[in-house]
Specification:
Chain lengths: 300, 726
């Protein structure tokens, strides 16, 4: 997937691709949701859900007087409530996200995932904002609860093509300071940064009362390191070149890499953040399931 | 160090291949953009140096493996010095001297020394480097260059070696060595070798010192190898002589043959059965010699009869031992059905007893008058005039008894007769013309072995006489009287005799042989002399045939003496029937055979080993010549493809020296140290490998092969170990 030029929102190709991404997100989400789920967020909103018998302590404002008058029974009216929260999707668009062992890079995958999540959130009448960052936020779409904006969101996701390294912690800190109302921060990144600082940024968000969901996007080759023969590894994010026989280093590499993954996961868990490790080879529904599972767990 | 396959050293260039592959592999490095670089950097920082070192070690191992393989395949060996020795495996020009003398017949029960020599020669040919050339010579007392000059056609050389035949000839090594040296001096290649494959029989090395010096003189240019295939044996019995003991060989008469058996061993031999057989018949007589001391000979007399006239092969045999060549001896004898003698009587006299040949006729036919017709010796008396016109070829012998002289035509006929194989006995007497005999017969023709000199004694005064020698009988005619039991010739009295003046050796005409003394008087003056003339022989007496000048004719010994004289005349023809192996047969045949082709079958064989010769006229005499007599035994001569009794049978006898199986002494062999390689080939020894090792030294390619294998194993193990993920 070729990266679009960032500022050409009126570029027909960019628009087409944004619509495609939106359509793709819609297809994925609707296909995922079809007949299987209801809104997980129940409350006292406008849409009636069901009756239940009154028990002492219930708010008498929700008594169905009509039922009391007809049947002399106390029933409480329940409604399906539209949760009114704001989700901030932070997508790592740094150069390291441009790696992909197959036809799909981590960034491609992450963009689709972000679009899907945005669509899903909008579909549930919540608000969503989208930011794409590397060292700092490069592209931003302000909060919106209109499904009509999904294509703009997608365009935002596609608009950026970074060549810079990642600085997640500063972006998280900036976000924590800018966003006053508590919401959900969905961070999608490969976390090829100083994980200690990243965790500090997450902690900052948590202190601000935000709920943080971490999607750790990785390529299958990064997870398995299956190279055979002699390779020259050209490091993205200006990390130099190495010529070696990777098969002979696989064990050592995997040890270091798995230790990194563990540190990130444990850090997230320590901060009370749901941590979802995502391989770009995974089907989308698994990712969405993982997301919804975090919500279920939280509000279940 | 020498490399037997030096060209394979170029395989060492393969050492470069791992390096080239390494360099090519470096150019084929796949490139990939990588995000998780810092984790890879950690691994590389921890392991890359070790990986580079391991890669270098594996590269060295692979290069070493190929280099060692190339070295092993080049077959290094330790011999000589310097790089110049690398040509040690180069081509060479060689002459194989294959001893095919009689002693090579010695066998270990399974194979003869000659068969081993053939195998050794093939091994030598096999061991020669490619591009070499080889000549093959058969060596006995003559050198037969079957392939005279070195040839590169080794299939021909092998064929020649396989088809080579042992002979029964003697051994003379030195001429063969000298000749081989002369030939190789002319050869071009830098490496020249002589392989003498022999049983090392000492008898063949009479000039061992000279031979050694000849080899020593060219040792820098020509390398000589002595391959000893004999096994030496301290025991060997051989039939060393077989001859007719009887004066004549008539049919149906018991004939005595003297057989001599010799013990060539170092221990006494006991109970040796000796048998005698005629042709292919079972043995006609057999006796046992009780013992023969070491190094000595014993004679035994055996008797047989001939059933038919003609040529017969007589075989004397002893039990087979390790040298079968001398365990039998064959001679050819012509059995005479009838012997016709023409007695030329100058004076028949009034009474038979007055005849010059009266006693002689009775001596030659010592049977009653009525039995003379059946007796095998027929005599016919003729006057000098009848002699002039007689057809001499009808007679086996002619006796001139006191014939004064005869015409030139008769002389011419007589000379031709004797030259063609006839026998002549000349008795003097009162009537002879000594001048005629001396000038015409002795000087001009060379018929007589001596000239008649002055007359000694007086026949009228018989109180003064002289006698024949009483002992020391050496000539074959009188040899039988060596044994005192046979009597003595010394009892006869001679009252008158011509002095015999032996012909001078320098004056001997072409057809005449040297004069030989048969008998002498007790004062040493010649009494009887003989000489060969052409294919015939002449016996000349100094006194009369009758009792006019002596009383020999009335002595009992006169009969055997005259039989032996007659026998010697007949044997003159027949003695050419027996020759030493390798000698040339020259035999005067019947005149009607001139121009005809005859087939000659060699000993032990059928038609496939026969040759064809034409009987040609030599000086008007039909002569059969045949020189392929290398094998001892009987040779049959037949006309064309005819079967049945042979037209002629002759025999070759082996060289007696070949029965002496003693090898060269250790001292003699030791004296070749530094001059020639002496190699003894015993059972279980791979001559091919030995020669190869001798030529090239000890190969140690196995060391390099093992090292290469070690490198391969190390490379496999380390490569496997180091290629594992870390």
């Amino acid at each position: 997937m070729a990266a679009p030029s960032s500022s050409t929102l009126l570029d027909p190709l960019a628009i087409q691709r944004a619509e495609h991404l939106g359509l793709q997100a819609r297809t994925i989400v609707e296909g995922f949701m079809a007949g299987a789920h209801k809104s997980p967020f129940r409350g006292f909103a406008i849409e009636f859900a069901q009756h239940r018998e009154y028990v002492p302590g219930d708010d008498t404002r929700h008594l169905d007087w009509k039922v009391l008058g007809r049947s002399d029974r106390y029933y409480i009216k329940q409604y399906e409530q539209e949760t009114n929260y704001v989700a901030h999707i932070l997508l790592d668009g740094s150069e390291s996200m441009k790696y992909g062992s197959g036809s799909v890079t981590k960034l491609d995958y992450a963009r689709t995932m972000a679009a899907c999540l945005a669509y899903l959130i909008l579909l549930q009448r919540d608000a969503v904002s989208v930011s794409v960052f590397d060292e700092k936020v490069r592209e931003h779409h302000p909060r919106t609860d209109s499904m009509a904006k999904i294509h703009e969101i997608c365009a935002t996701l596609l608009a950026f093509d970074s060549t810079e390294p990642t600085a997640i912690s500063s972006v998280l800190s900036d976000t924590a300071m800018k966003v006053k109302r508590r919401g959900i921060v969905i961070l999608i990144s490969d976390f090829f940064d100083d994980e200690e600082k990243v965790l500090e940024g997450i902690q900052h968000l948590r202190f601000g009362g935000h709920e943080v969901i971490v999607f750790h996007v990785l390529d299958p080759f990064e997870l398995d390191f299956p190279f055979k023969g002699t390779y020259e590894f050209d490091g993205l994010e200006k990390s130099g070149k190495i010529t070696t026989r990777p098969a002979e280093l696989r064990k050592s590499y995997l040890e270091a890499f798995n230790a990194f993954l563990d540190r990130v996961r444990l850090g997230c868990e320590r901060n009370g953040c749901p941590y979802v490790r995502v391989s770009t080879s995974q089907p989308w529904n698994e990712v969405l399931s993982a997301y919804l599972a975090t919500r279920q767990h939280r509000y279940g | 160090m020498v490399f037997l396959n030096p060209f394979l050293l170029f395989g060492g260039l393969a050492v470069a291949s791992p390096i080239v592959i390494h360099l090519i592999a470096r150019k084929q490095i796949k490139k990939v953009a990588w995000a998780a670089m810092r984790f890879l950097q950690v691994s590389v920082a921890r392991h890359q140096k070790m990986m580079d070192l391991e890669e270098l070690i594996l590269l060295i191992l692979r290069c070493a493996l190929l280099a060692l393989l190339a070295l092993a395949l080049a077959r290094p060996s330790l011999k000589g010095s310097g790089f110049g020795a690398i040509g040690g495996g180069g081509s060479e020009a060689a002459i194989l001297l294959l001893d095919n003398s009689g002693s090579m017949a010695q066998t270990d029960g399974a194979t003869s020394a000659f068969q081993r020599a053939q195998k050794a020669a093939e091994d030598v040919l096999d061991a020669m480097p490619s591009g070499s050339s080889a000549a093959v010579w058969l060596v006995s007392d003559v050198v037969k260059g079957v392939i005279p000059e070195p040839t590169r056609d080794f299939s021909l050389a092998r064929k020649v070696v396989r088809q080579a035949e042992r002979s029964d000839r003697g051994t003379e090594i030195q001429p063969a060595i000298r000749e081989a040296i002369d030939v190789l001096k002319r050869a071009a290649p830098p490496s020249k070798e002589i392989y003498l494959i022999t049983d090392g029989q000492a008898a063949g090395w009479k000039q061992v010192g000279e031979t050694r010096n000849a080899i020593d003189a060219v040792k820098s240019e020509i390398k000589t190898h002595l391959l000893l295939v004999g096994q030496g044996d301290s025991r060997n019995l051989g039939v060393t002589n077989l001859r007719l003991g009887s004066a004549l060989a008539p049919v149906d008469e018991p004939l005595r043959f003297d057989v001599e058996v010799s013990n060539f061993g170092l221990e006494d031999a006991k109970n040796i059965p000796v048998s005698l057989a005629v042709d292919s018949e079972p043995p006609g007589d057999e006796q046992t010699l009780e013992s023969i001391p070491a190094g000595q000979s014993k004679r035994i007399s055996l008797f047989i009869r001939f059933r038919a006239a003609g040529f017969h092969a007589i075989t004397a045999r002893i039990q087979a031992d390790r040298d079968p060549a001398d365990d039998q001896r064959v001679i050819a004898i012509r059995a005479t059905g009838e012997v016709n003698v023409l007695l030329v009587d100058s004076d028949p006299g009034a009474e038979p007893r007055d005849s010059e040949v009266f006693y002689l006729r009775n001596a030659l036919t010592p049977v009653p008058p009525e039995a003379r017709a059946k007796y095998f010796i027929k005599t016919k008396a003729a006057s000098p005039a009848e002699f002039e016109s007689a057809k001499l070829s009808d007679y086996d012998a002619v006796v001139l008894a006191d014939v004064s002289s005869f015409s030139n035509a008769a002389l011419e006929a007589l000379a031709k007769y004797v030259k063609g194989g006839g026998g002549l006995i000349v008795f003097p007497g009162a009537k002879i013309d000594p001048k005629f005999y001396n000038e015409k017969l002795e000087i001009e023709r060379g018929l007589l072995p001596a000239a008649y000199g002055p007359v000694r004694g007086n026949a009228e005064q018989q109180e003064q006489s002289f006698r024949l020698q009483g002992k020391d009988y050496k000539h074959p005619i009188v040899e039988v009287w060596k044994d005192p039991a046979s009597g003595t010739l010394g009892t006869a009295h001679f009252f008158k005799a011509f002095s015999l003046i032996p012909a001078k050796i320098s004056d001997i005409p072409g057809d005449a042989g040297p004069p030989a003394l048969v008998l002498s008087y007790e004062d040493g003056q010649p009494a009887v002399m003989e000489r060969s003339f052409g294919f015939g022989r002449v016996v000349q007496f100094s006194s009369t045939a009758n009792a006019a000048w002596n009383d020999l004719a009335v002595h009992p010994i006169y009969v055997p003496l005259m039989h032996r004289v007659l026998g010697s005349l007949l044997a003159r023809q027949d003695e050419r029937l027996n020759l030493r192996a390798g000698s040339k047969l020259i035999y005067a045949t019947d005149p009607e055979l001139a121009g005809k082709d005859v087939r000659i079958t060699r000993p032990g064989g059928g038609k496939d080993i026969s040759g064809v010769r034409r009987i040609s006229l030599v000086n008007g005499i039909p002569v059969l010549e045949y020189d392929e007599t290398d094998l001892a035994g009987a040779y049959d001569v037949r006309i064309g493809g005819a079967d049945g009794a042979p037209l002629l049978r002759f025999a070759a006898q082996p060289d007696l020296e070949e029965s002496k199986l003693q090898e060269l002494s250790p001292t003699d062999l030791k004296s070749f140290d530094g001059i020639a390689d002496v190699l003894r080939w015993g059972s279980g020894v791979s001559l091919h490998a030995t020669i190869q090792r001798e030529r090239t030294g000890s190969e140690f390619w196995i060391v390099f092969a093992v090292l290469a294998l070690a490198c391969a194993v190390a490379e496999t193990l380390l490569g496997n170990r180091w290629s594992k993920s870390r």
